[in-house]
């Protein structure tokens, strides 16, 4: 029994060992096939990797070329843009320098003008200088508008008052005085007033100054029998004139009652132009007799010219008749010459013509 059992166990072990051997051989063959498949796959993968590497290298080269081309184009454009920008910047800088030079010149002019304005303010701050400024402006306006015979400056009147300007006009209206006044201090205080109280005080001062000037001119420069019944107060500032007519109408009315007419540079020029027309008309009236005499003399000259033209016409008529007689004589001479030529031709053509006498002359010359 034991031997049988051992034999059975030996048989089973042998069977198992053979089965394992068979399985091992089968497994080895499978592994060989798998190794071959893996090797083939590796070769295929290596080929694909090579193709991919070559394609990637070609693509990379193309990309590098494209990038280089684009970089060259960008560099060229950038260079052109920088060159254009440099030119524009240079031109802009030149224009900027020119404008800065103009601004500098304008600044110098403004500085000079400011200094002149300051000096003008200094001049106007002094009453005597301010009066001289008004007189000079008045003199310039009168000289530019009227002939020298129509005005005089700094004239002493019969009451020993000295007038800035005296306009010589025929009666009526007679000589008219123009006196320059410039209430700058009260006007400046009125313009610079910061509150109603200061403005009221300045307005009263300005009104008082103007009324004083009006009364002085009416009392000094309106002299019966020597000057006209009115006079002119010249304000050498349009701003003062405008302020007066805008806010101080009672002062203007007072001047009208006193027959003192307030004028500015603009309105004075209009008055002077009117006076020039009046002077021209008066001069025309004074010269009316001379003009009438000259016209009568002109009429006589025209009549004398008519007589001489008539005489000349008669001479032309006689000359025409003489010319007609001369034409008649010329025609006769021409006909006689033709006859003489005919006679000469007949003598040449006929010898018998020599025996004939010359033809009698029946025409008169």
What keyword list fits this structure?
single chain; 365 residues; alpha/beta; 5 strands; five-stranded mixed β-sheet; 8 helices; flat
Q: How does this structure look, described?
A:
The protein is of the alpha/beta class and 365 residues long. It folds into 3 domains: 81-125; 127-286; 293-344. The protein is 77% helix and 7% strand. It contains 8 helices and 5 strands; from the N terminus they run H-H-E-E-E-H-H-E-H-H-E-H-H. The protein has helices at 2-125, 127-145, 184-191, 196-221, 238-247, 249-257, 265-286, 288-349; strands spanning 151-156, 162-167, 176-180, 231-234, 260-263. A 5-stranded mixed sheet has the order 1-2-3-4-5. Helix 3 packs antiparallel against helix 4. It is flat and about 190 Å long.
Report the count of strand segments: 5
End-to-end distance: 214 Å
Helix content: over 70%
Structural class by sheet pairing and helices: alpha/beta
Rounded mean pLDDT is: 77
Please give the radius of gyration in angstroms: 65 Å
Order of adjacent strands in the largest pleated sheet: 1-2-3-4-5
Strand content: 5-15%
* Count of helical regions: 8
Main sheet? Answer: 5 strands, mixed
Compressed to H and E, one letter per element, the order equals HHEEEHHEHHEHH
**What spatial form do the alpha-carbon principal axes imply?**
flat
- Uncertain segments are 117-125, 352-365
Q: How many structural domains can be distinguished in the coordinates?
A: 3
């Amino acid at each position: 029994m034991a031997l049988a059992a051992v034999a059975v166990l030996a048989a089973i072990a042998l069977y198992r060992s053979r089965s394992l051997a068979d399985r091992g051989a089968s497994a080895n063959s499978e592994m060989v096939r798998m190794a071959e498949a893996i090797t083939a796959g590796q070769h295929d993968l290596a080929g694909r990797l090579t193709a991919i590497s070559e394609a990637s290298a070609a693509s990379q080269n193309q990309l590098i070329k494209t990038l280089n081309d684009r970089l060259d184009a960008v560099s060229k454009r950038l260079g052109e843009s920088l060159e254009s920008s440099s030119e524009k910047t240079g031109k802009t800088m030149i224009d900027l320098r020119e404008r800065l030079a103009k601004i500098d010149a304008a600044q110098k002019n403004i500085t000079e003008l400011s200094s002149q304005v300051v000096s003008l303010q200094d001049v106007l701050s002094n009453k005597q200088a301010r009066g001289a400024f008004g007189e000079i402006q008045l003199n310039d306006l009168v000289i530019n508008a009227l002939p020298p015979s129509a005005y005089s400056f700094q004239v002493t009147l019969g009451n020993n008052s000295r007038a800035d300007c005296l306009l010589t006009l025929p009666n009526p209206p007679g000589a008219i005085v123009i006196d320059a006044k410039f209430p700058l201090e009260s006007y400046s205080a009125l313009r610079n007033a910061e509150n109603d109280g200061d403005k009221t005080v300045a307005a009263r001062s300005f009104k008082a100054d103007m009324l004083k000037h009006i009364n002085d001119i009416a009392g000094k420069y309106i002299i019966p029998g020597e000057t006209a019944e009115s006079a002119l107060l010249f304000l050498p500032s349009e701003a003062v004139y405008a302020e007066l007519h805008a806010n101080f109408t009672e002062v203007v009315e007072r001047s009208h009652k006193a027959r003192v007419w307030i004028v500015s540079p603009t309105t004075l020029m209009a008055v002077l132009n009117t006076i020039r027309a009046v002077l021209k008309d008066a001069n025309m009236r004074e010269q009316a007799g001379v003009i009438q005499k000259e016209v009568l003399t002109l009429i006589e000259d025209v009549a004398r010219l008519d007589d001489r033209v008539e005489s000349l016409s008669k001479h032309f008529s006689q000359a025409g008749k003489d010319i007609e007689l001369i034409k008649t004589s010329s025609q006769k001479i021409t006909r006689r010459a033709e006859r003489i030529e005919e006679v000469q031709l007949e003598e040449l053509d006929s010898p018998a013509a020599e025996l004939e006498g010359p033809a009698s002359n029946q025409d008169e010359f």
